[in-house]
Design goal:
The structure is a homodimer of 338-residue chains.
Chain A lengths: L2 E7 L12 E7 L8 E9 L2 H6 L17 E11 L9 E7 L3 E4 L6 E2 L17 H14 L6 E5 L4 H12 L3 E6 L2 H9 L5 E4 L5 H11 L4 E6 L3 H8 L2 E9 L18 H5 L3 E4 L9 H13 L7 E5 L4 H10 L5 E5 L3
Parallel strand pairs in A: 8-9, 8-11, 9-10, 11-12, 12-13, 14-15
Antiparallel strand pairs in A: 1-2, 3-4, 3-6, 3-15, 4-5, 5-7
């Protein structure tokens, strides 16, 4: 009999998640709900946002209920179906969970995908999925880059940040990326086309701010913020007048029991800058358009996106923690089935 | 012989200014510069922004040089002139300094004013000046209130905040004001027309956030931020989707050697809110339009603005410190001459 392994949230993490916050259980494979279907998950996206969903606090989505499988975007194939539009074997993607099989209702976040467009279905969780499109719409629709402007990206070696920098170059911007460690910084300039790479590791706010100033003496016109905390404080000391800040993530804060916060908000005032809280969900109805452009850029070799593929539901915890240890470069994906 | 008393910045304050940071000296009255004139200052505006100008940090204006008189917007009369457009006795206002006489070049921030419009020339430093117009343009042009929306104002009993609330009511908004102490809170509802007054004194972030939630269960559509720190953190826990935050001041931080910062910026992301760094200088060319509207509302009794008039250059230090002790309500003005 098929088993359905499920990676459950057992209790709410305090600060950094520990193994005891989770449980891996085996249950029977669910039946297709009336009018819906069951997905066999092949790949699951591991994202910083999932850490936020584990807290019992108001956010853009309800918290993951205790005892539920950890919510995740997955790519998979229809296993059993009570819906003529979704036949067994069809590839789909949607907001499901870290489990072998997910019962889903059609519509909303679960949609058919054309895997013939890509070399691996996991692409729909990276460049063609929410991550690539988070970079795409955040930079193009929120920051609105103009040719010749300077773009500063934190978490620049990460899944979103690496793509933001590459799209920035396509749009004629000077790009400065901040990442942790020499290996990542080398990747920024050699693989993602950043004009300048800055290593934040072991530097206080003042030192980091000075390095940014050296790279952008006239200030930065745009910040694509993935990190927050000290890194953001250093960035804020280097705003050009009317800078636009896309607030996409605050990964340095997600596990912090005592949030460090941002202390240089007064620079936003002084430089008449704007901070835009940004969620990709606002652009869901334009995913096809963005995905087509990303596919074209990838085919032309203008955008590369690395995937960090970890194997097996039994490794869900250590795989997830790679997001916070700085171990991963590129989009972190958990492979659930072959 | 006339003397020119000047309130000088002797050294840069560390945290809260102390008397030894300043010096009151007497110098000869300056000569009118070629093509310019000398102003006899009557009233000077005391504003939190002056504290920022005392620090040696990048901002929207150069720091006040050590040994210079403390920069201030003043209202006064032309004393001597080398410019036919500005005759002795004419009333003018401009960016001058805390001193009896200021040598100035015409144009830029120094312009003629019609004191017949008002009951006291000091009005050009309050309702008709940068303070009233900071409220006016910040609310109307940046926050863009819609009828029926909820507006939250911190520092609501202050010069800017009291006017923001009143204009919010004119525009059909529900207004919630945050201030320190029962007297100020009573003033919010009884004098400035706020629908709800919340006293932040002695409350931690969670308690304050709960009180705001009770007053605005569906969240606030706009925040007019004058305070920052803990107060802002509590506000950020109560954003409605797509809330607009006008970042006008961060008075709780100006004297803090260790800035507390804002820890709940993630709510800006989660609610897709926007923070707009706002300086009144962007609207200088529309001051006449705004001043006319403010004068009309004041004449109709729709907007009241309190002035806290302190007397004498010799009291410049204690007068200035009223901004930070919470002692003042209404626009703080230093009267320099009768």
């Amino acid at each position: 009999m098929l088993e359905n392994r499920r990676f459950l949230l057992k209790r709410r993490p305090e600060g950094e998640p520990v193994p005891a916050d989770f449980d891996l259980v085996s249950e029977p494979v669910p039946e297709a709900p009336a009018g819906g279907f069951v997905v066999r998950n092949y790949f699951a996206s591991l994202d910083p946002a999932q850490r936020g969903w584990m807290d019992d606090v108001p956010s853009y989505m309800p918290p993951i209920a205790l005892g539920d499988a950890v919510r995740a975007t997955t790519v998979g194939r229809v296993h059993t179906s009570d819906n003529a539009d979704f036949k067994p074997g069809d590839w789909v993607m949607g907001l499901n969970a870290l489990e072998d099989y997910s019962p889903v209702m059609p519509g909303g976040f679960t949609s058919a995908i054309d895997v013939s467009l890509v070399d691996s279905p996991s692409r729909f969780l990276s460049a063609m999925g929410a991550v690539g499109l988070t970079a795409y719409f955040g930079l193009l629709e929120v920051a609105k880059p103009q040719e010749g402007e300077t773009l500063l990206v934190s978490g620049a070696a990460g899944a979103v940040g690496s793509v933001v920098g590459q799209i920035g170059k396509i749009k004629g911007c000077r790009t400065i990326g901040i990442a942790g460690g020499q290996d990542k910084c080398r990747k920024l300039t050699e693989r993602y086309g950043y004009d300048v790479a800055i290593d934040y590791k072991g530097k206080d706010v003042d030192t980091l701010a000075e390095e940014i100033r050296a790279a952008a003496p006239d200030g930065v016109n745009m910040i694509f913020e993935n990190v927050g905390g000290d890194v953001m404080d250093a960035e804020l000391m280097n705003l050009a007048k009317h800078a636009r800040i896309v607030l996409c993530g605050l990964i340095s804060e997600y596990n912090a029991p005592e949030k460090l916060g941002v202390r240089n908000l007064w620079q936003v005032l002084a430089q008449e800058a704007t901070i835009h809280g940004y969620l990709i969900s606002a652009y869901v109805d334009r995913f096809a358009e963005g995905g087509a452009q990303m596919a074209e850029w990838m085919a032309a070799g203008k955008v590369v996106m690395d995937e960090d593929i970890q194997e097996g539901l039994e490794n869900a915890y250590p795989a997830f923690m790679r997001l916070f240890s700085g171990a991963n470069t590129g989009k972190l994906v958990l492979k659930i089935a072959e």
